[in-house]
């Protein structure tokens, strides 16, 4: 089977590094035109777009800001001429210890929910409207194993936000399937990224790998091929599903 996405335009949020970067490059290798979203790492995003080729362009938006998020889909469509697939990958993992004062606790929870859940919700809203007007489309949301098994006490906000992403995905699949819109969630386990480094620094890599069935920590490149497959249309009847990519760290 060969996956040819040469007729597909895809927006990948958080594409300047980590899992998002690997996804953008994998989609481009299958021929897709990729919108490379970034928040602040412009140089890194431009390097990704250059590596992608196929007319890839960069798009800046702070997903903790409602206005920035609200205009992103419109900017992509205006620049790239359309949108066929939305990949909501961007996320934050902010520590919120119980002993924090309430304003600090609230800030961590508010930012986590805005970037990890509210931004995807708003982007999905605009994508669905566009897809309804253009014959359909696909949404691929990057969740986390934390959505199903929870996380450490300091990262309860992260787990809660990702559980919301899973519910959002199922609701999109149920609500808009008749409009030829498919929605999927991918739930990576602990993956070697810059975002994960704070956790590794705090708890140690041995803690992160202690419950894995495999001997290696998951890499971003282990996640990307599944996104390409879902974007290709070969798995449309799996709409609404969540796919675990976590080195066998749990079965649920």
Automatic annotation (TrEMBL):
Entries under Pfam families matching the protein: adh_short_C2
CDD domains hit by this protein: SDR_c
Gene3D superfamilies in the cross-refs: NAD(P)-binding Rossmann-like Domain (3.40.50.720)
Family: Belongs to the short-chain dehydrogenases/reductases (SDR) family.
Protein's UniProt name: 3-oxoacyl-ACP reductase
Originating organism: Longibacter salinarum
């Amino acid at each position: 089977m060969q996956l040819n996405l040469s007729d597909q335009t895809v927006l990948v949020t958080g594409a300047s590094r980590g899992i998002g970067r690997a996804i953008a490059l994998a989609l481009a290798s299958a021929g897709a035109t990729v919108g490379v979203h970034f928040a602040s790492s412009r140089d890194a995003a431009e390097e990704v777009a250059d590596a992608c080729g196929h007319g890839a362009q960069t798009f800046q938006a702070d997903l903790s800001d409602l206005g920035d998020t609200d205009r992103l889909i419109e900017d992509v469509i205006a620049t790239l001429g359309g949108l066929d697939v939305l990949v909501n990958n961007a996320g934050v993992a902010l520590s919120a210890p119980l002993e924090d004062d309430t304003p600090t606790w609230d800030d961590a929870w508010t930012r986590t929910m805005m970037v990890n859940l509210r931004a995807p919700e708003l982007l999905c809203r605009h994508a669905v409207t566009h897809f309804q007007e253009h014959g359909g489309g696909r949404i691929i949301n990057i969740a986390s194993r934390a959505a199903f098994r929870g996380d450490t006490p300091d990262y309860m906000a992260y787990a809660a936000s990702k559980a919301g992403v899973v519910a959002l995905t199922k609701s999109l699949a149920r609500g808009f399937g008749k409009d030829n819109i498919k929605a999927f969630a991918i739930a990576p386990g602990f993956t070697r990224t810059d975002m994960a480094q704070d956790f590794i620094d705090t708890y140690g890599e041995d803690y992160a790998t202690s419950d894995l069935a495999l001997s290696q920590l998951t890499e971003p490149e282990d996640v990307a091929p599944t996104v390409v497959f879902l974007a290709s249309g070969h798995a449309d009847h799996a709409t609404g599903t969540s796919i675990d990519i976590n080195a066998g760290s749990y079965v649920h």
